[in-house]
Amino acid sequence: MNRRARVVAVLVALGIGLGLAALPGCATTGSPLPRQARPLPPADGVAAPARPGAAAGSAGPSSTPGQPGPSAQPCIARASVPPLAALPPPGARGSRIEAIRRYGYLRVGVTTVAPPFGSMNWRTMEVEGFDPAIAGEIAGAILGDPELVQFRAVDTRDREALVADGTVDIVTGTMTMTCARKERVRFSGVYYEAAMRILVPAGAGLRTVGDLAGRPVCSSQGSTSFEKIANLVRGPGRPIAVNRVGIVDCLAALQRGEVDAVATDDTILAGMRAEDATVTVLGPEAFDGVLGPAGRAGLDEPYGVAIGRTDLAPGLSPAEAAANRAADDAFVAFVNRVLLDMMTGPTWNRLHTRYLRDVLRVPGVPPNAIQPNWPDGVLVTGGGS
Amino acid sequence: MQAPAAVRSVRQFLAVGAGSRFVGVLAVLIGALLLAGTVSRAVVAQRLDATESIRERSAAALIIAERLRAALARADATAAANVFSWVDLVPSRPSSPAERRENYDEVKAGGYYTGDHSGDAAVSGLAGDDTAPAGDGPAAPNQYSAAVRSATTALLELREVDPGECESARAPGSTSHCAMDRIATLIPEYVGLVAEASANTRAGNTVGGSYQRLASDLMATSILGQTNLLVTAYGDRVDADYRRATGGHGEDLLLLVLACALVALVGAQVYVYRRTRRILNAGLLAATGVLGAVAVACLVLLGGQQSRLSAAQRGDFVPMTLLAASRTLALEARTCEYLSLASLGNGDGADACFQRAVAGLGYGLDGRPTPTAGALSAALAELPAERAELAAEFTAWLRERGEVVATLRRPPRPTAGAGSPDVFDDVVGVTLRSEHFDRFITRVDGLVGAHLEGFNGEVDAGAADVRLLAAVLPIALLTAASCCVIGISARVREYL
């Protein structure tokens, strides 16, 4: 190789060397967000999701064949088993009450957003209202101390499920007795007679159900009121039934103009009226033209204490189911004795005066006053709505 | 047969003698240096622009978006605790007026008080408050107002860093501007809902809780959803800027043209050497030295910039973004914790939301890291020095929450022990005054700030390297060209 060739070779090598030397130093560096620093996929929000099987208007599953309901007779929504003649001494109160005595407190589901029947007072940190007080009386009868209650907030979507699956022993939570619900839970006799009513903005010219034609009317998910408002009127003149998670969410929806009315129990609406002076509760005459006198009875919302049905537990033999049914009967009969004692004594009126009178602005009438053979479910003429 | 015109011109040029050939060599050299100058200018300008864009635009926007996200999550966590804000002022509690006044002041300034001025995102502060920075309006009267104000400020800053209009139909790239518009629309709505919740809660109205759930839903699903879009979009922009700032193709091209220019200079030296009685041309030699130095400077400074950016990415960007994400998730979990507590056991949605946020952090509800890494567990893996302290505070907070859940499930106490505090009282007190959570957030805030400083410092240093190269290159190339002219023109004069 001559000198010239060598020089050329050196130059070429120099050039290539420079180029190659540059390549590794100039490798591209990315800076993607670390996978864990990327935002999580969108959430459903923080509102409580609906429990499976507790969809709006659902009344729970029907009785399983071979596991009949508490009574083979035609269902009377208000009816319950007769109360015990007297409260028996501890040890003779049936297996369910003895179980409660063993763990030492009564687990109660209450609604905490329906004053004056049940609400959480965040200033005193106490659940208060007519329903918790009823639960306290029952706890007092069982355990000797009305404070031995563990409250669990429930709403219209989940209260049946919670009492049915044994999460709570009883529910005193503005729970309307219906035959459909009795397929899943037991009820005491009626402890309060409520009725469905409608809340509208005051001065909005909405005076009857007919005025609500085509307008959104709100009820809570899983409530009887939702079913009633959805089926109140057939055809184009009916209101549009919408629902929210809780009934108090309906009041917020009304205040925000998302709905024009709230349909639920008069007891709950009275509490809303107490919170918001710009709304008014329509009386029973609002249903004139839509419901006749017989149809008015369909607006009744008799409240009962719900108790789980242990005879529906899976895998029970017929004999075991019958034994459990007897135990449930004994529990309901015990609770009915407590309730009857309250209604015939001063307690019911005392609680009414303390929690309800100022808000409802109606005199307290214990349910046994319109149901002479309480709790057979038969009303005297003119009772209820 | 006649040769083509170009070949004829070359033959004619070669025939005119050595002087003309030296002129030609000079022209080739100047052309090579001009090409090197043009390419180097373009490459360095692009790299400098991308590096500065990281610091001033994409990463700045990402950092502000993270700040916006955290401020909004903090505001929601504060607002969600509002239902408990008056618990400490229950008149029945035995205490002296002085103790109550002190308590009242603590409540007012506490992290769970929204007051009644929450409807004003522009915020009116305390009259006569001299703690406010000059020219920046009065100080926020409480943590909620401070968080809302911080979010509003962050949104305004974001608009300055990333100006533009939302034109989603015509410009798909304007996603971030559309998200900013939506956030700007939703914040007043959120603040209004919180104000409604606060007003109702103070009056003891149950509907207050409903408004708070609406507000928190709006925050979780809509507002934070939009900030998540911003974080993702700006994260992608940082990545794109990083790739531009460290892109190899431009640098390869630059070094190639410099190599070509070097080859041309060496070739010219050989040519001149052979034509001039074996004398090395000093001008060409100097030009070659200068160009070689330029090549070395390119390698050193561009390599330095690249290694600084890599170091900033590994050492600061990754921990900073992981910590920022952890902070937001922890604050979201805090919101869910309050909502769950306020639901009195009927908050499946809030419980699920808490669990989701904690899982996103890489932990289980028992305080143990999950097999799948989350934001916090990944951040702690990057920060061995801080790992123990941060993990301890975080898991202590989770344990506190576990105790609260257990307490709520505990049997009620008989009234025989009258005077014993109520169970709700216990759990609300424990939850509200969780020093572990506050210390965790404060520590994360500090670490995010420190890593932000480190990141900015490294990127600035990287930009300084490129800026130095940008300043040196034209001078060096001009010097090399001058050397060529001086060296060759002496030969031209000699032979012409």
UniProtKB/TrEMBL annotation, chain A:
<dbReference type="InterPro" id="IPR001638">
    <property type="entry name" value="Solute-binding_3/MltF_N"/>
</dbReference>
<dbReference type="GO" id="GO:0005576">
    <property type="term" value="C:extracellular region"/>
</dbReference>
<keyword id="KW-0813">Transport</keyword>
<dbReference type="GO" id="GO:0030288">
    <property type="term" value="C:outer membrane-bounded periplasmic space"/>
</dbReference>
<protein>
    <submittedName>
        <fullName>ABC transporter substrate-binding protein</fullName>
    </submittedName>
</protein>
<dbReference type="GO" id="GO:0006865">
    <property type="term" value="P:amino acid transport"/>
</dbReference>
<dbReference type="Pfam" id="PF00497">
    <property type="entry name" value="SBP_bac_3"/>
</dbReference>
<dbReference type="InterPro" id="IPR051455">
    <property type="entry name" value="Bact_solute-bind_prot3"/>
</dbReference>
<feature type="domain" description="Solute-binding protein family 3/N-terminal">
    <location>
        <begin position="105"/>
        <end position="359"/>
    </location>
</feature>
<keyword id="KW-0732">Signal</keyword>
<feature type="region of interest" description="Disordered">
    <location>
        <begin position="33"/>
        <end position="75"/>
    </location>
</feature>
<comment type="similarity">
    <text>Belongs to the bacterial solute-binding protein 3 family.</text>
</comment>
